[in-house]
Every structure is written in structure tokens, then in C-alpha cells.
Amino acid sequence: MKWLLFPARIVARTRPNLFSLYRRSVSQYLRPRTIQNLQSMAQTPELKTKLFKPLVWIDCEMTGLDHVNDRIIEICCIITDGHLAPVKAADGQGDSHYESVIHYGPEVMNKMNEWCIEHHGNSGLTAKVLASEKTLAQVQDELLEYIQRYIPDKNVGVLAGNSVHMDRLFMVCEFPKVIDHLFYRIVDVSSIMEVARRHNPALQARNPKKEAAHTAYSDIKESIAQLQWYMDNYLKPPQETESVESIGSEQPESPSSSTSSLKRQRTDF
């Protein structure tokens, strides 16, 4: 039994030369692994803070509205928490966002309809598309990496925007990795606008007008501001709804709650 518990002492007592060899071999065995462990610990990224009910605001500029034949040529993404506060840039200077232009040649751009030719030409987007060196695959990977930087878990971030169902329709075909990472529901500000037009048209008439710059970044900023306006002026704040009784016994569902895998993996409409 002592041989099993104290092999080093026994070796040292019987044969000093063997003990020296034993100690040297053990040191050589452990040291590389200790260094490797320390290196792996140093390379382990810090835990990312999870945003409160994050919204992934995306706006696309396309060559038209036919999701089969037309293409996304510009895409922008801003991530906010549930209170519409944008995530900050890595350097702490201003808000963070992703924006990119996808390259297509004249054979694609010349097929645009008159509206796209006029507006994309006036905004300078057509020239940017022709000059861009980024492929669709590259932009998709960059956008997915950007979203995962702030929302690492699947089925948590909710796609948001104005008429964002149309952006999603194109993205299912061209950005399937991004759609697969997001939750299947969307927040479409246009839906609130249409409800307000019918429910409170007088208030809707005072909704701030858009500048209609028709660039992906400016459109997202306007969409966020528009939803904030609805939250401030149209939707009731929590303190005004405390006395409202719930209908049924169902609890509010969050994207991170347990939802059936079938629903979570949906990409249909």
C-alpha cells in the first residue's frame, strides 16, 4: 500500500538517481500543460452582457420588390435593447451599427425599375454598388458576426423595422444564416401605424414625418424614432395599465422562454 501512496519517496530512498530522473520527467510532463492551461484561460473571451429583450433593426435597399429576381444591394443593422437604447460602439464613441454595400455589375443594376434607378442614383447608392468589392456571402458572414457579438444566443434577437416583413422575405433567400439566428417573430412599426390610423387617426396625423432619404441607415434611425414616438404618445405606459385584468392564465412569453422547437425554427411567413 505504501508503494502506491508514496512512490516518489520510495524511489528517492532506494535509488537517488532514479528519483532525480522521476522529478525531472514529472516536471517536463506538467509544465507544458500548465502553460497551455494558462494560455487558454487568457484567450477565453469575457462573458457578454445579455441585452434586455433585444431588437435587431435591419433595413435593406433592393433593386426592386421582386424577392425572386431582385437583389439586396445595401443592408444596415442597429441593435437596441427593449427600451430602444442602441448598443454602444467598442470605443465608447457613439452608437454601434453595421452597414455594407454588396457588389453587383451593370447587368443587374440596369434591370432596376424607374423608381430604383432614380432614387438609388440620386442617393449615390448605385455608384457604391458598382464600386463595392464585397460579395453577398461576405456581407452575410459579417452581419451574422456583428449580431452574435451582442446577441450570442439563437432565437433571442427579434427582427424589427418598418415593413420589415419585406426585408425578411428577401433575407430568407439571401441571408438565411442571419434569419436562422433570429427569433421567428418580428416587430413591424408599420403595423402600429396602420392600427393608429384606424384607432386614433387624429393622433396619427401628428406623427413626425419621415425625411425619406432612402438609405438603409437613415431609414432605421427613423424607424426607431417612430416606435419611440408611439411608445411615448400612443401606447400606454406601465403605470397606466396596472389595474388591467389579464384574460386567461397565460403568462407573457419572452423569446428566451421555452417555445416549441418547431416554432423556433420557423422561416415561413
Describe what you observe in this structure.
The protein is an alpha/beta fold. It folds into two domains: 10-43; 55-237, Ribonuclease H-like superfamily/Ribonuclease H (Nucleotidyltransferase, domain 5, 2-Layer Sandwich), CATH 3.30.420. Helix content is 48%, strand content 10%. It is built from 13 helices and five strands. It has helices at 2-5, 7-14, 16-43, 106-109, 114-123, 125-131, 136-150, 164-174, 176-181, 189-199, 201-204, 216-233, 261-264, and strands spanning 55-62, 72-80, 98-101, 158-161, 186-188. A five-stranded mixed β-sheet has the order 3-2-1-4-5, with helices on both faces. Helix 2 (7-14) packs antiparallel against helix 3. The radius of gyration is 28 Å and the shape is globular. 22% of the residues are buried. The model is unreliable at 1-12, 25-47 and 254-269 (pLDDT under 50). Keywords: Exonuclease, Hydrolase, Nuclease. Belongs to the oligoribonuclease family. This is K7_Rex2p.
What are the defining features of this structure?
269 residues, Nucleotidyltransferase, domain 5, 2 domains, 13 helices, disordered C terminus
Concise overview:
The protein has 13 helices and five strands. By secondary structure, the chain is α/β, with parallel strands linked by helices. It has two domains: 34 residues; 183 residues, 2-Layer Sandwich (Nucleotidyltransferase, domain 5), CATH 3.30.420.
Which structural class is indicated by helix and strand composition? alpha/beta
> What sort of overall outline do the alpha carbons produce when their principal axes are compared?
globular
Helix coverage percent: 40-55%
- How many domains? 2
List the total number of helices. Answer: 13
Report the C-alpha radius of gyration, rounded: 28 Å
Q: What is the name of the CATH topology of the largest domain?
A: Nucleotidyltransferase, domain 5
